[in-house]
Amino acid sequence: MPKAESGLKPERQRKPTIHDVAHTADVAVGTVSRFLNGRPIRMSSQTRIETAIEELGFVKNVAAATIRKEASRMIGFLVSSYDELQITILAGLTARMQSRGRTVLPLTHDGSSETMVQALKFFEEHRIEALVASGDFTAMQGSPLLKGLDTHIILFNNDIPELACDRVLFNDAIGMQKAVDHLLGLGHTRIGLIAGRPDHSSGEGRLEGYMRAMRDGPGVDETLVVGHEWSRQTGYFAGMELLDGEDPPTAIVCASYLSALGLLDLVRERGIVVPRELSIISFGDCDTFGLVGPGIDALSMPAKRIVDHIDHLYVNRAKLRSPTRAFVDVELIIRGSSAPPIQRSG
């Protein structure tokens, strides 16, 4: 006998869940969760989520029963390597975030696409609240995973112009111009530059500042611009190229403290007297520069101010929906490695 149908109940319409919203908006569930909890996400994702909520008739006040808890309380920190500046910023940021009940997860991507992808996937899996990163190397600039990471991104030191995010950058061009103007004021006209990476915004900015100061002064000699890298080895061999030229410079500015250390290796090896025979200024400071005699003049990059800006952007991001750009000035510290040039015979 067929079963009686009198016991059947009419099917109740299922209420849409956060998973339905995520599917309709084509975003991750965690992204919808961040939106519902008032955390910042990409504007494009926010628009799609709001549209999906309206289409589905999703009621926000039922979210607590359907979403996983948004409580990672973790901040990602991603750089290519740990130099003196990165370490100082990481230490300051860690202390600041600990006071806010947050944990900083530091990773390096060493410039390769593979480690870049691994790092970003790790951060995505841990549902970080924000990513603080130095926007360096082609691996980072071209990563679609970075562009698709739905979290609050704050870049520092180097920029990725096409990425819609907050950034805190140094006034590289103004700082370099300050160093070159100082040497011009001492009477130098042959000023060499050991440049930084041309694919980094910081390298481009420092080159721009050098070129601007030289154009306003004695004019630009392209043979005095060498290097194009940040390493200590580059400083050594670029310094050799400058000093072995037909008309060597009487002063050299290094675009990074690492290249300045390499130049100092060469100077010590050749017995060149600083600053009587060669004036040197480094863009970027380190503890060693205050210990050698004479001390090395340097453009100091204040890490504390960078941390202050990052913390401010992190705390206020929910209020500031459009990307924010902040600039930090560098300070020229004179210790004794620059002086007027000696008059050359002949």
Q: What characterizes the major β-sheet?
A: 6 strands, parallel
So, CATH architecture of the largest domain?
3-Layer(aba) Sandwich
- C-alpha end-to-end distance: 121 Å
CATH superfamily of the largest domain: Response regulator
Low-confidence parts: 1-12, 61-69
What's the rounded overall pLDDT mean? 86
Number of extended strands: 12
* Spatial arrangement of strands, main beta sheet: 2-1-3-4-5-11
Q: Which structural class fits the helix and strand makeup? A: alpha/beta
Provide the gyration radius in Å. 27 Å
CATH class of the largest domain: Alpha Beta
Structure description:
The protein is of the alpha/beta class and about 350 residues long. It has 3 domains: about 20-65, 434 Repressor (Amino-terminal Domain), CATH 1.10.260; about 75-165, Rossmann fold; about 170-300, Response regulator (Rossmann fold, 3-Layer(aba) Sandwich). The chain is built from 13 helices and 12 strands. It has helices at about 20-25, 30-35, 45-55, 65, 85-100, 115-125, 140, 145, 170-185, 200-215, 230-245, 255-270, 305-315, and strands at about 75-80, 105-110, 130-135, 150-155, 165-170, 190-195, 225, 250-255, 280-285, 295-300, 325-330, 330-335. Strands 2-1-3-4-5-11 form a 6-stranded parallel β-sheet, with helices on both faces. The chain has a 6-stranded mixed β-sheet with strand order 7-6-8-9-10-12, sandwiched between helices. The chain starts with 17 loop residues before the first helix and ends in a 13-residue tail after the last strand. About 40% of the residues are buried.
